[in-house]
Amino acid sequence: MLNEKKTIRAWCMYDWANSVYSLTITSAIFPIYYQAVAVNANGGDRVSFFGTEVVNSVLYSYALSASFLLVAIILPILSGIADYAGKKKFFLKMFMLIGSFSCIGLFFFTGKNIEWGILCSVMASVGYSGSLVFYDAFLNEIVTEDKRDIVSARGYSYGYLGSVILLVLNLVVIEMPNTFGLADAGIASRVAFLTVGVWWIGFSLYAIAKLPENPHGRKPEGHYLTNGYRELRNVWGQLKDMEGMRKYLLAFFFYNMGVQTVMYLAATFGSKELKMEASKLIMTVLLIQFVAIAGSYLFAFVSKKRGNIQSLLVMIVIWIVCCLYAYFVNQEIEFFALAAVVGLVMGGIQSLSRATFSKIMPPDTVDTASFFSFYDVTYNLSIVFGTFVYGYIEQVTGSMRNSTLALASFFIIGIIFLSQVKLKNASTQAA
Asked: Is 35 helix (H, G, I), strand (E, B) or coil?
């Protein structure tokens, strides 16, 4: 049944469950811990990875790129199988377990086993990213079109809030490890990775249990792989005739390169370029999360008044300004101010991008996972290119500041393509 409160709450709770990975592992504690322990015998940032010497931050950027590339390769066929067999919940649960147990595996990463740490971080990323396509696909099946902007924003706000709660609890332990019977902040950080995995599993199982099992009543016959491929090919055929969706995905590819790269590497930028203390970096991340809650609801309201495309264009312009400003940031107060603005547009652009795509999809389609696989493959490929280019430019020029200029160019290209998107839906097109 559409617009059922219990189902919507359960869907939002998966964001509450998995967003602890995004905050603790990708944005806050793990990047700082990684920078501290992934060093050579002399304390330098060049480490050995399977016999190859590489800068630790560059290695991390490349590892993230590899994880998203892997997801982009396997998602389309799995989404086709999920649509054909009515197995979205199965794949959602499978990727959730891969991601959460990989976070638990990070407990055993000490810095001396750099290969293990990279492997676990890659698989955690695969689990997180892989689960999103099946999670997103439920949006069209639980709410009507007029409520997707606000429900998408609600999901992200659940995620921002839940992740902050666990992060704060972990920070208390890290700041006072002896009080909790732990030797030092290092082991406390590793315990934090453990709690992320447990939190992710626990709340996910509740959320998944409440989501509809097979809302379209699909009854698979024959080979799953063959028919899954056929399902995907059918959606691809429809996509080729949908000019608005193609242009939107192209725009999303470019501007999301900038959004996600900023999210994944902001803490590293503050650490390396501004030499900020870990506590101040954590404060920055918390600031971004709280402001993002307001941003997601603010731009859901703006989209109701001005249309989704117009709202997205405004946010991308703000992102461009943020990237250009980041190049000149030298003071901590400037970094905090920039973080506040980034948080505002981060919450808005993430929730509204998902909701906009859900509105572009054919309203009567049963292949929601297959359609969203193109959205999420675009999402993952954009991160592959974004993090790779960011790391490559740093490696060549020796400065992360130069990489921020590349991010600005991604947003500019994105705004060019998005401005060409013409949609019939009045609530989605600019007013």
From this structure: helix
Maximum Cα interatomic distance, the chain, rounded to a whole number of Å: 62
Query: pLDDT, tens digit, for every residue of 260-284?
Result: 777 766 666 776 677 777 777 778 8
Residue 91 CA to residue 88 CA, distance in Å, equals 5
Q: How far apart are CA 101 and CA 92, in angstroms?
A: 14
Compute the distance between CA of residue 202 and CA of residue 286 in angstroms, rounded to an integer. Answer: 23
Q: Quick check: helix, strand or coil at residue 240?
A: helix
Please state, as a whole number, how many other Cβ atoms lie within 10 Å of the Cβ of residue 53: 10
Tokens of 256: 């999301």
What's this model's pTM, rounded to 2 decimal places?
0.82
d(CA 8, CA 138): 10
For 212, the token pair is 């509809």
Q: How far apart are CA 95 and CA 284, in angstroms?
A: 30
| Cα–Cα dist 347/159, whole Å | 10
Residues 6+ apart with CB under 8 A from 426: 307
How far apart CA 396 and CA 406 sit, in angstroms, is 13
State both tokens at 308.
């989704």
C-alpha–C-alpha distance, residues 230 and 222, integer Å: 12
Residue labelled with tokens 């969706």: 245
pLDDT 10s digits, 8-54: 999 999 999 999 998 888 877 888 888 888 888 887 888 888 888 88
Is 396 in contact with 233 (CB distance < 8 Å)?
no
Q: Is the distance from CB of 30 to CB of 193 less than 8 angstroms?
A: yes
The tokens for 200 are 């992710």
Pick the CATH number of 5-216+242-418 from 3.40.50.11240, 1.20.1250.20, 3.30.200.20, 1.10.150.750: 1.20.1250.20
DSSP annotation of 47 reads: E
CA–CA separation, 116 vs 4, rounded Å?
43
- The CA distances from residue 430 to 400, 407, 422, in Å, are 35, 25, 9
End-to-end Cα, the chain, rounded Å: 31
d(CA 321, CA 245): 27
Q: Name residue 360's amino acid.
A: I
CA–centroid distance for 401 within its chain: 23
Contact 182, 173 (CB under 8 A): yes
